[in-house]
TrEMBL record:
GO molecular function terms attached to this record: monooxygenase activity
Keyword presence, Coiled coil: no
Keywords of this entry: FAD, Flavoprotein, Monooxygenase, Oxidoreductase
Region named Disordered: 505-525
Protein name from the UniProt record: Flavin-containing monooxygenase
Gene3D superfamilies per UniProt: FAD/NAD(P)-binding domain
Transmembrane segments: none
PANTHER family: FAD_NAD(P)-BINDING DOMAIN-CONTAINING PROTEIN-RELATED, L-ORNITHINE N(5)-MONOOXYGENASE-RELATED
UniProt-listed Enzyme Commission number(s): 1.14.13.-
Length: 525
């Protein structure tokens, strides 16, 4: 039946008058999770719009050598789709992507997904109370839009003077060119973030020379990884309670750690000492060790996990340039400290557009302004989901929902609870036959954001380092300053007092461009 519904909607799209109740953007963890939750809520009138040709999101795009997750596998999976067959404590990209493919098939999501269908524009129609969605496969309209594009989807490459003149190969870690053979090449890796510390040891043995350009060193801890034995996997299959216990222990340990990050940064001293010991054991050269030692408190930037990054830097064919890349002159790469290196290929491990997500430029709200314009002084969304002036638009992994030490899947599932209740509230408001929409009140968004920023002052992320958690104004608009249990609690239900209820007459076809409607606001006490 679901497949028939999906096919019927596609036929309608051909006629140019398609309307769906919910349009989901993206098919990573957030988008697939939203699709599963919609089906569980009995909603089949939805589509998932995916710009690529396969599901997976960041785990489809990031296929660079050595790519793996830094969250334990049994915690980095949906609670409703446990995987007893994870091969390692920290599984690699191929296994995570295969897991997402399996979730897609297990829950019958493929009929709802439109591949190679990039969203080019979103515009709120106040008269019809719906979103007009422009895509690469034609337009449609939707009562509700769920943006699950994720913050780690669009790569950030710095503007380096002369880069266009480089005669060799250039690519970002999330757009890895697997057709380019690095063997015997002089390779420059730019950046020392989570991707770079996995790439460096993976390619070091095969390249002629590897140069790492480090603008700021990172704190690196040992990676407590090992294969999960066949006995453990069989046990998790035959006795599901053991799998649940393992997940619960992983979750509980990380919940207990949160206080040190959010309230008592001084308690991280022991962890910092462990990181220093890890560096000292692997890197014997005092000058190199000094260059790799951060001058900020551990946790201020993302803590990285690796057992082979430091040893790779100590190999004879590896050089560390403790300075950022400043400019390029042909094949010569010049660092800010004047160091000059010649390379055949440049790999950027410079992160993503987290605080200026491109999707925000394509969303035009009720006031005729884009989400990017509304967020030019900093991102803000009620409970990480709703931005004022953008009715019936919800974000999965929105502002201040990131985590510094646990699994983002826990945050995603909490936001799916919020999405489900949001749709129930809309259904109840429309029970009289009239159409309704919810728009987050500016006062509610501001109050929520003030509360978050007040709490943020005590956190380790605000202790003075420059990180991708912070926006241009120095505000942390990325990370959640609490436990995942607390986030689940504050997103369990939609509080209608935080929203304006927009109403319109409901006796006309919502896809009719000539439809007339009356907008009203209800003050909900």
């Amino acid at each position: 039946m679901a497949e028939q519904d999906a096919v019927g909607r596609r036929d309608t799209a051909v006629r140019g008058r398609e309307h769906v109740r919910v349009a989901v953007i993206g098919s990573g963890f957030g988008g697939l999770g939203a699709a599963v939750r919609l089906r569980r809520e009995g909603i089949t009138d939805f589509v998932v719009l995916e710009r690529a040709g396969a599901v997976g999101g960041t785990w489809r795009d990031n296929s660079y050598p050595g790519c793996a997750c830094d969250v334990p596998s049994h915690l980095y999976s949906f609670s409703f789709a446990p995987n007893p067959e994870w091969p390692r404590n920290f599984s690699g990209q191929p296994h995570i992507r295969a897991y997402l493919e399996r979730v897609t098939d297990t829950f019958g999501l493929r009929p709802y997904i439109r591949f190679n269908c990039e969203v080019t524009s979103l515009r709120w129609n106040a008269g019809a109370l719906h979103w007009e969605v422009g895509t690469g496969q034609g337009p449609l309209t939707a009562d509700v839009v769920v943006s699950a594009t994720g913050p780690l989807s669009d790569p950030r490459i710095p503007d380096i003077p002369g880069l266009d003149s480089f005669p060799g190969k250039v690519f970002h870690s999330s757009r890895w060119d697997h057709d380019y053979d690095l063997r015997g090449k002089r390779v420059a890796v730019i950046g020392t973030g989570a991707s770079a510390i996995q790439i460096v040891p993976a390619i070091q043995p095969e390249v002629e020379r590897l140069t790492l350009f480090q603008r700021t060193p990172a704190w690196v801890l040992p990676r407590m990884d090992r294969p999960i034995s066949a006995f453990e996997r069989r046990l998790h299959v035959r006795v599901p309670a053991t799998r649940a216990l393992r997940r619960g222990l992983l979750w509980g340990i990380r919940e207990l750690q949160v206080g040190a990050f959010t309230k008592r940064p001084n308690e991280l001293g022991l962890i910092q000492a462990l990181a220093k010991s890890h560096l000292r054991k692997a890197v014997k050269d005092p000058a190199t060790r000094a260059a790799l030692t951060p001058d900020y408190r551990i946790g201020c930037k993302r803590i990285l996990l690796s057992n082979d990054f430091y040893p790779a830097l100590a190999r004879p064919n590896t050089d560390l340039v403790a300075s950022g890349l400043k400019e390029v002159h042909g094949s010569a790469l010049v660092a800010a400290d004047g160091t000059e290196v010649h390379a055949d290929a440049i790999v950027f491990g410079t992160g993503f557009r987290v605080i200026d997500m491109p999707i925000a430029q394509r969303v035009t709200g009720a006031n005729g302004t884009t989400l990017a314009e509304e967020w030019q002084d900093g991102m803000a969304a009620l409970r990480g989901a709703s931005a004022a002036g953008f009715p019936n638009f919800l974000t999965i992994i929105g502002p201040n929902t990131g985590l510094g030490n646990s699994s983002m899947i826990l945050i995603i599932e909490a936001q799916l609870n919020y999405l489900a209740d949001y749709l129930r509230q809309l259904t109840a408001l429309s029970a009289d036959g009239g159409r309704a929409a919810l728009d987050a009140r500016p006062s509610a968004v501001n109050a929520w954001n003030r509360h978050l920023q007040d709490r943020m002052r005590r956190t380790v992320w605000n202790t003075g380092c420059d990180s991708w958690y912070l926006d241009a104004n120095g505000r942390n608009t990325t990370v959640w300053p609490g436990t995942t249990g607390e986030f689940r609690k504050v997103t369990r239900r939609v509080d209608l007092a935080e929203y304006a209820v927009l109403r319109a007459t409901g006796d006309q076809d919502p896809t009719d461009p000539n439809r007339t409607a009356v907008d009203t606001e209800e003050a909900v006490a």
